[in-house]
TrEMBL record:
Pfam families: PBP_dimer, Transpeptidase
Predominant place of localization: membrane
Compartments where located: Membrane
Protein name per UniProt: Penicillin-binding protein 2
Domain Penicillin-binding protein transpeptidase: 279-583
InterPro entries: Beta-lactam/transpept, Beta-lactam/transpept-like, PBP_dimer, PBP_dimer_sf, PCN-bd_Tpept
Organism of provenance: Pseudokineococcus basanitobsidens
Amino acid sequence: MPPAPHHRPARRVDARPLVRPERRARLLLALVLAVLVVFAGRLVQVQAVDARAVADQALADRMGLEQVLLAPRGEILDADGDVLATSVERRDVVADPVIVGEYSRTGDDGEVVSSGVDGAVDDLAGLLDLDPADVRSALTREGTRWSVVTKGITPELWARVDALGVPGITSEQRWAREYPGGPLAGNVLGYTGYSASGDDEDAGLGGVEAVMDDELAGTDGSQRVERGRMGQAIPMGENDRVDPVPGEDVRLTIDRDLQWTAQERASAMREEADAEWVSVVALEVGTGHVLALAESPTVDPNDFASADPSQLGSRAVSDVFEPGSTSKVVTAAAALEEGVVDPLSRFTVPYTWEAPNGQSFRDSHHHEVEHKTFAGVIGESSNTGTVQAGDRLTREQRHEYMERFGFGQRTGIELPGETAGILAAADDWDARQQYTVLFGQGVSVNALQAAEVYATIANDGVRIPPRLVAGTVDPDGTEHEAAPAAGVRAVSEETAQQVSTMLEGVVAEGTGDAAAIDGYRVAGKTGTAEAPDASGGYSGYTSSFIGYAPADDPQVVVAVIVQRPQNGFYGGQVAAPVFKDVMTYALTSRGVPPSTEPARLYPQDW
């Protein structure tokens, strides 16, 4: 019988799983708890430990770009505080092209009447009076979130633009310079524009605006505001602002009304005489204050860009001319001060006179031999008589007194481009020039220097540099007066008084009778000099009259310079009438009382 088959022992089946359910549950619970701990830790870190840093970063992300808050320039004022130059607020309209398309405007009935870019273009172009194509270009410019729509609109117009509610349309404040008087004192005030570096669009570029730029320019501020996703400012959001500080006001010595009168008369005479240009200077005796500095032609600083560049400066300080007979007062003062003549010294005055070195000189018009006192020589403006008197002075003395009266030196006036004039060294004068300087040829001055000579005589022989700036005013109203200019004695009081009496004779009995003013004693001098040209020769004349009043108590000096007049050329013809009108206004407007005693004049003949 075969053996029974072999049977493998049956395997015992264990009913329990390899991983118990309760163990799995504990593992899952531990994992969940670990995750929760991590999240809780992070939450604690974010809300407690790093809360400030996270909040600051979120706020920084919402804050817009820093916007510069431009400071307004200070005002330029006349002597009485009237505004000659000021800054007015203007707005530049800018767009964020990314969100402009969300624009929607509804009518009174609630229906949408304008929407999208097309609607924004139509509404903005109509309101701003712009070409729709230009507005569309600004609103659809790609690759930027800042695009200029237009510049320089008024705050009132911006308010109407803002009321449209076009998304992304904002404005940036700027300041525009305005000159309420238009061309009034245009050559003095100057103008503003972009600086040479291009980083300042409101920099002083001419006149007082340039010289006093540091005082007039303020300090810009800045601002950043919290903005929403669409770029709109969040009401009541964060506002990081540093206010701008306005510039200081600058108060001038200019009398606005006198400036206007001088400017009007200069313009009228330029047209009447068909002259190249006319300058009128008015100075206050004793202070050097410039009361008027008028030019014709002049410029309107509101539109300086269209002006002839040659007219942008002040000719009264930048252009030179040979003063002619008005500078004979320097020769007279020098001769009197040195004692080589007195007002009654006798001179035989021919039409032509030959100097010891053989140089020949003549008077402006033919006449027989005359017998004149020195006062009569000056009164009739005789070249031959003046040269005879001046020949008693050495070369060095002639030069010294011209320097004493300011020739060849800048006055220091607060204007750019001032010339020192031309005064050669005495050793450089040739055989003829050593005499011609005695009657104002071969030497050159500007109009302000010429006026300063007469202000020195009127101020009893003390020369005070002319000044244009009276002081500054801080934004808080604190005033700072400019330090008074120090005077320097040029000649003695006695010499100045003698010259003054001789100048009264010029107006009362000599060549300056057209400058006489009823009720006032006037001292002054005519001048008619050949005008140098670019070729090195002479063409035309420089006609002038300079004087002061009342001669018995001098208050105001007025100088009138007429360059190359075509209709008349003697100073007594074209310059003296302008002097009379300007001086008459100056005296009456300032309340200067008339003279109470008649002049005691020196005899003109012997």
